[in-house]
Write a structure and sequence with these properties.
Length: 314
């Protein structure tokens, strides 16, 4: 039976056994489930500032976990090896192409809403399975090293939001903090499920035009804006904008974006921190890295409107 996934803007209509554009959500016996539930590709004890969070428990560390899959198709992806991974239907292995898919192939995937494994040779990636209780036990053991809780990060956590919700709920019951690092491209229904169990978020606001999200990143600006507008009402939120030369680096866009941020929470959004970061060539996007001067210039412009602006990767 075909079922539609309503987690993000793609609304993938999936036949039995088929996986969505994110690579993580799957039709199993007529139900859309998170095929990546508890399947981790990355695990580390990170400084909280690396999330990045500048104004939430500074100086602490947090157990950071990631799985595989993503709802966007950013050509500059910094974590391509796990974000673009897919399950091989024959072997069941989670695989990533050894060479980059072409831009045209990726665009075709977005338009169809259901991905194909690129034709290049693929290699499996290492998966470790953890239950929420396993992670809580590990987090508690790491308390002497400064750990305050758990961060869902590295890939896009909301393509497997059920695992993040279940784990975060368990961590809260143990008095530990929870952090979500996300692209924010998820429905209101998903946010309502997870927001009560999250203490802080860093949300990417990758650009501020419909064309940037639609044609360059493969997503929906409107969905991200709606997600941010609701999230700031329920937990500590910081935002990140990666500056990509020629794509989202105009002074006009920064002024429009920061004016919108300041208008959040009924006009009291000036205190929402913004991280302005430097792009480096990665994945399919090989243009030169952002000039450091451009990052500082745009940060200064953002600071004309917002109270807390930070520069990163400089």
């Amino acid at each position: 039976m075909k079922k539609t996934c309503n987690v993000c803007c793609h609304h993938c209509a999936l036949e039995e056994g088929q996986t969505g554009a994110c690579g993580a959500r799957k039709n199993v016996a007529g139900r859309i489930v998170a095929a990546n539930y508890g399947k981790l590709t990355a695990l580390a004890l990170d400084p909280i500032e690396k999330k990045p969070l500048a104004r939430f428990r500074p100086g602490s560390r947090i157990l950071s976990v990631g799985s595989y899959g993503c709802s966007l198709r950013c050509p500059f992806c910094q974590n391509y090896e796990i974000a673009a991974a897919r399950e091989d239907p024959e072997s069941g292995l989670i695989q990533v192409p050894e060479t980059d898919p072409t831009a045209q192939e990726a665009l075709s995937v977005r338009r169809q809403g259901v991905p194909r494994m690129p034709s290049e040779r693929c290699r499996p990636i290492e998966i470790a399975e953890y239950t929420p209780q396993d992670l809580l036990n590990l987090a508690l053991d790491l308390r002497p090293r400064g750990n305050i809780g758990i961060a869902f990060t590295y890939n896009e956590p909301l393509v497997g939001w059920e695992f993040a919700r279940d784990t975060a709920q368990l961590f809260h019951s143990a008095g530990m903090k929870t952090v979500l690092v996300t692209n924010g491209m998820a429905s209101k229904e998903v946010l309502e499920q997870i927001l009560p169990h999250i203490d802080a978020m860093n949300i990417d606001l990758k650009g501020f035009s419909d064309a940037f999200y639609r044609d360059f990143a493969g997503g929906s600006l409107e969905m991200v804006k709606n997600f941010i507008a609701e999230a700031v009402k329920g937990c500590h939120v910081e935002l990140t904008k990666l500056i990509i030369p020629g794509k989202n680096d105009s002074e006009e866009e920064m002024r429009q974006m920061t004016a919108w941020i300041a208008g959040l929470r009924e006009g009291r959004g000036k205190d929402i921190p913004l991280h302005v970061s430097r792009y480096f060539p990665a994945y399919r996007w090989k243009e030169p890295a952002t000039e450091v001067s451009a990052v500082y210039r745009l940060a200064r412009i953002a600071g004309e409107t917002l109270d807390y602006v930070y520069t990163g990767n400089c």
